């Protein structure tokens, strides 16, 4: 790949190009919104917009940590399975102790520990991330099935439920969490040395190592963060649906990856952003929301989503080329 | 390397130490997945039934939920082991017919429970009548909303036998009440998070929803959470009669749940399989009566499945 | 990146351990612990069960060698199986049905190849998109129902045998021989090796990289079409979820078999061993009646252990 190995050059150079890309993507979101407003009279209402944002928040939280992993040219296929185990453990802790705080600590801690284990597999054991996290996915799923034994844990205290279904000043709580982590993510990736080092690892790991980046430690960090975000997402899900079941994380991984990729982060690493992922998550959520509002049968959903992913990335490629 | 090899073998040996040792009859039980509490109730039912009869049970469940090729492989593997009898819930009632034919060819007697297989030879079929349950559960809801207003249907997995029949029952109940309008009928694949989001989106299109007919309990729970999140009021019914549903009926959040009793289907299926092995007479078919659980008959369902006792075949057939 | 110029033989020596050790441990453990394991019936059982996965894993090995990926394979297999079943039910002709399956495979392979090679969309995203398309078409074509009513002539393809060997095993052996010949004894194979490790050299030699990539994905699509034939015969029906997720199983088997994801070094025999190891594991765990939740964990552990052993070898 012809990416720039020089960290200094990247930090000056990349954001402006990424900003242009983000602008194109915002334009696509705006066009989609205009189309939906024309097609459905309930789309452009406060309620529905808040509804879309709340659903986006969940997808974004899963995808934001994953963005960092993909920025290093890695992948985390264990996100969904991580969410399932973290949610089930957190649910048990809340049920047993009645303390939402302990539950939150359990969820995030479990997620981070799983992410840390992924990081160790990828760095110390040198297993390609795709396979390491795929193996991890199976192991976590097995543990979750064993732990839950086909049962459901439900009914959490109202304080905890606020995290998922509560409102503050008329805006759903998950939206605040989303904005908070968008800012943290943006600051971390764009404005800290560690963030820049993550971009450098993705762009060219050899050059990054030569210029003194502690590649292994940063990679472990990145996987741990991705895991912790999965843990956080699991808490939002718990708080929203008020129950945990072994299959809670099923079918969440691929949409999260899709959100990152539609958001313009490259699988080859080194280019993309957490803000882009938000746009990707928003875009995919809008598509599903639109299909529900227009009463399009859900059998169409995989087909439409597939076409949209391809279109988005293809347009992205074209605009990227015309920039260069 | 030697140490590694050794430890791997040790771990494997530890996992297998609880594996089968054959004394008395061995019955293999096939269910669809490890995640839905419903099939856990079925498994507990078969084991409770087996305990009273003194037989050994081995459970086979696809590691990928509802995987057709995997259940077929498991059947092929189990035929090698030759259990005395099989109690079988097909993952798909049509696609697993070749599996049943293989069991038939191997001469192992097989009892079909829950989803009626489209082919193959069985000792008996034990099931609930999904259509009647759907009909009765929907009637409960429609009566409670005063036979007028707007309802939505949340469907399960497209094409599954249970879903097709339950939704048909819902729709037939709706035909009896012309003043009730069906606003939308959307699938959420028996999953609560999907149901939550589908209902959230449908609430945007429909300012007034009086009732939600969900084809299983987890989706009913998802619908309840969506309604609560938007501060909207509607009556909700589900199907399965799960522990969660019973608690929600008690607290007044769920109106009713159709009793698709996995525990009883499991233990009756086991009883028939064993009776057949012991050359005792068995009925060719047992269909459980459609019961709707609501506040009026709740107490019987508050006992956790693990502590319930198996009704005898005679009790069930007499009903 | 320096190209690793290795002959197939020297690569085999470097790679045997991971997957071979795992396979040997599994066979020894199951052989001792389960009396039914080492019987002709069970061995033919394991081999037959592994054939569909092998048909996907063979072309996937080539695709991974070009530093690509095909996530759509399970969904394309499913759609091809549905096309086959619908055609056979409608026309009564097994030949037409088979052609329909191959056509679906060919079209998706070509589509994947064109998007990846000509439009420069990364393979992961391309095939994630086509996965959705194939899955959506399967649902729409069947409304979620099984397609049944196939004549017995289809079922025989899976249940029949030639000279005592199950037909699916014969078909898989032919597919293996074909892929082996393609990879190690044709110019196409040489280019596949070069596509992963040494793309620039290929360009300098005036070979169309795009054309080669498209051919690799078309090969993948066609093999998914063949796999659909076996899957349909096995189930004697087609179902819109039958093949979902199989691409990940194939990729895991390939990784266990020692094909590298980063340098474009593939090892076809390793893929064969990897597929059989997965088959042996599942079969053995079922024979020992290990609870499913433990089975799930074992599968993940085996994947990681096999790669860990490979990693150890690589270090020394």
Attribute tags:
heterotrimer; B: 319 residues; alpha/beta; Rossmann fold; 2 domains; six-stranded parallel sheet; six-stranded mixed sheet; 11 helices; 12 strands; 45% helix; elongated; disordered N terminus; C: 316 residues; mainly alpha; ABC transporter involved in vitamin B12 uptake, BtuC; two-stranded antiparallel sheet; 13 helices; 77% helix; 1% strand
Structural overview:
Chain A has 13 helices and four strands. In chain A, the strands form two sheets. Chain A has a two-stranded antiparallel sheet. A two-stranded antiparallel ribbon of chain A has the order 2-3. The longest helix of chain A has 33 residues. Chain B is α/β, with parallel strands linked by helices and 319 residues long. Chain B folds into two domains: 144 residues, Response regulator (Rossmann fold); 129 residues, Rossmann fold (3-Layer(aba) Sandwich), CATH 3.40.50. In chain B, helix 2 packs parallel to helix 10, helix 3 packs parallel to helix 4 and helix 5 runs parallel beside helix 6. Chain C has one domain: ABC transporter involved in vitamin B12 uptake, BtuC (Orthogonal Bundle), CATH 1.10.3470. Chain C contains 13 helices and two strands. Chain C has a two-stranded antiparallel sheet with strand order 1-2. In chain C, helix 2 packs across helix 8. Chain C is globular and about 60 Å long. The N terminus of chain C is likely disordered. The interface between B and C is large, with 44 and 51 residues.
Question: Mean pLDDT score of chain A, rounded?
Answer: 87
Structural class of chain B: alpha/beta
What's the SSE pattern of chain A? Answer: HHHHHEHEEHHHHEHHH
Which architecture name of chain A does CATH use? Answer: Orthogonal Bundle
In DSSP terms, counting alpha (H) and pi (I) runs of 4 or more, how many helices of chain A?
A: 13
Percentage of residues assigned to helices of chain B: 40-55%
Provide the number of structural domains of chain B.
2
Name the chain pair whose interface involves the most residues: B-C, 44 and 51 residues
């Amino acid at each position: 790949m012809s990416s720039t190995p020089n960290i200094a050059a990247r930090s000056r150079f990349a954001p402006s190009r990424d900003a242009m890309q983000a602008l194109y993507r915002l334009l696509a979101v705006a066009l989609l919104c205009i189309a939906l407003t024309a097609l459905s009279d309930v789309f452009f209402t406060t309620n529905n917009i808040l509804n879309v944002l709340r659903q986006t928040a969940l997808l974004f939280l899963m995808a934001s940590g994953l963005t960092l992993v993909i920025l290093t040219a890695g992948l985390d296929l264990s996100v969904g399975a991580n969410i399932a185990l973290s949610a089930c453990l957190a649910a048990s802790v809340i049920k047993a102790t009645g303390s939402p705080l302990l539950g939150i600590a359990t969820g995030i801690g479990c997620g981070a520990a799983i992410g840390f284990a992924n990081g160790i597999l990828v760095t110390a054991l040198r297993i390609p991330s795709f396979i390491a996290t795929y193996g991890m996915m199976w192991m976590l799923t097995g543990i979750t099935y064993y732990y839950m034994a086909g049962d459901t844990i439900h009914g959490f205290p109202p304080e905890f439920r606020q995290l998922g279904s509560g409102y503050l000043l008329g805006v759903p709580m998950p939206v605040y969490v989303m904005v908070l982590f968008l800012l943290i993510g943006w600051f971390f990736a764009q404005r800290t040395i560690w963030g820049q080092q993550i971009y450098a690892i993705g762009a060219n790991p050899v050059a990054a190592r030569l210029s003194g980046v502690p590649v292994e430690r940063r990679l472990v960090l990145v996987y741990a963060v991705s895991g912790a975000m999965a843990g956080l997402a699991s808490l939002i899900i718990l708080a929203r649906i008020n129950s945990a079941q072994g299959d809670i994380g099923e079918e969440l991984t691929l949409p999260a990856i899709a959100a990152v990729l539609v958001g313009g982060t490259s699988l080859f690493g080194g280019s993309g952003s957490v803000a882009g992922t938000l746009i990707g998550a928003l875009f995919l959520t809008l598509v599903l929301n639109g299909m529900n509002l227009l009463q399009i049968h859900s059998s169409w959903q995989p087909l439409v989503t597939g076409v949209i992913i391809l279109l988005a990335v293809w347009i992205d490629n074209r605009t990227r080329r015309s920039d260069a | 390397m030697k140490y590694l090899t050794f430890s791997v073998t040790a771990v494997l040996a530890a996992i297998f130490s609880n594996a089968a040792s054959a004394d008395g009859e061995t019955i293999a039980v096939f269910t669809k997945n490890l995640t839905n509490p419903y099939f856990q109730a079925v498994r507990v039912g078969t084991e409770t039934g087996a305990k009273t009869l003194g037989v050994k049970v081995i459970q086979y469940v696809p590691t990928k939920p509802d995987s057709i090729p995997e259940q077929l492989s498991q059947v092929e593997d189990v035929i090698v082991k030759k259990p005395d009898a099989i109690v079988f819930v097909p993952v798909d009632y049509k696609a697993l017919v070749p599996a049943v034919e293989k069991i038939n060819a191997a001469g192992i007697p097989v009892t079909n429970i829950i989803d009626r297989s489209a082919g193959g030879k069985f000792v008996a079929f034990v099931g609930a009548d999904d259509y009647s349950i759907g009909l009765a559960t929907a009637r409960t809801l429609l009566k409670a909303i005063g036979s007028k207003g707007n309802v939505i249907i949340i469907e399960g997995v497209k094409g599954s036998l249970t879903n097709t029949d339950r939704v048909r029952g819902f729709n037939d109940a709706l035909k009896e009440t012309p003043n009730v309008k069906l606003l939308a009928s959307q699938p959420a694949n028996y999953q609560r998070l999907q149901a939550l989001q589908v209902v959230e989106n449908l609430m945007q299109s429909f300012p007034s929803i009086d009732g939600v007919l969900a084809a299983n309990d987890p989706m009913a729970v998802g619908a309840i959470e969506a309604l609560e999140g938007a501060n909207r009021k509607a009556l909700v019914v589900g199907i399965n009669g799960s522990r969660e549903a019973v608690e929600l009926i008690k607290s007044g959040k769920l109106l009713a749940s159709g009793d698709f009793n996995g525990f009883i289907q499991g233990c009756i299926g086991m009883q028939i399989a064993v009776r057949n092995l012991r050359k005792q007479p068995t009925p060719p078919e047992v269909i459980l009566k459609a019961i709707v659980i609501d506040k009026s008959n709740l107490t019987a369902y508050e006992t956790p499945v693990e502590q319930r006792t198996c009704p005898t075949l005679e009790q069930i057939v007499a009903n | 990146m320096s190209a690793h110029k290795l002959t197939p033989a020297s690569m085999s020596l470097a790679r045997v351990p991971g997957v071979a050790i795992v396979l040997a441990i599994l066979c020894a453990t199951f052989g001792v612990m389960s009396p039914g394991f080492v019987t002709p019936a069970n061995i033919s059982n394991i081999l037959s069960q592994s054939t569909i996965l092998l048909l996907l894993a063979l072309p996937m090995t080539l695709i991974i060698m070009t530093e690509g990926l095909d996530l759509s394979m399970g969904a394309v297999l499913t759609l091809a199986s549905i096309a086959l079943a619908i055609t056979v039910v409608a026309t009564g002709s097994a030949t037409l049905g088979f052609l329909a399956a191959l056509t679906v495979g060919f079209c998706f392979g070509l589509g994947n190849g064109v998007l990846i090679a000509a439009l420069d969309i990364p393979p992961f995203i391309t095939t994630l998109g086509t996965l959705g398309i194939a899955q959506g078409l399967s649902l729409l074509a069947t409304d979620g129902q099984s397609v049944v009513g196939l004549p017995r002539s289809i079922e025989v393809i899976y249940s029949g045998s030639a000279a005592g060997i199950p037909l699916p095993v014969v078909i898989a052996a032919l597919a293996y021989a074909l892929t082996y010949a393609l990879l190690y004894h044709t110019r196409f194979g040489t280019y596949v090796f070069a596509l992963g490790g040494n793309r620039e050299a290929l360009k300098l030699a005036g070979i169309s990289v795009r054309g080669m990539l498209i051919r690799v994905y078309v090969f993948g699509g066609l093999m998914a079409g063949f796999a659909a034939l076996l899957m349909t015969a096995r189930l004697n029906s087609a179902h819109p979820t039958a093949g979902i997720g199989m691409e990940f199983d194939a990729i895991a088997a390939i990784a266990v078999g020692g094909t590298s994801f980063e340098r474009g070094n593939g090892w076809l025999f390793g893929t064969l061993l990897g597929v059989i190891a997965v088959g042996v594991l599942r079969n053995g765990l079922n024979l020992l009646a290990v609870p499913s939740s433990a089975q799930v964990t074992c599968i993940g552990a085996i994947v990681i252990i096999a790669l860990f052993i490979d990693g150890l070898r690589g270090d020394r």
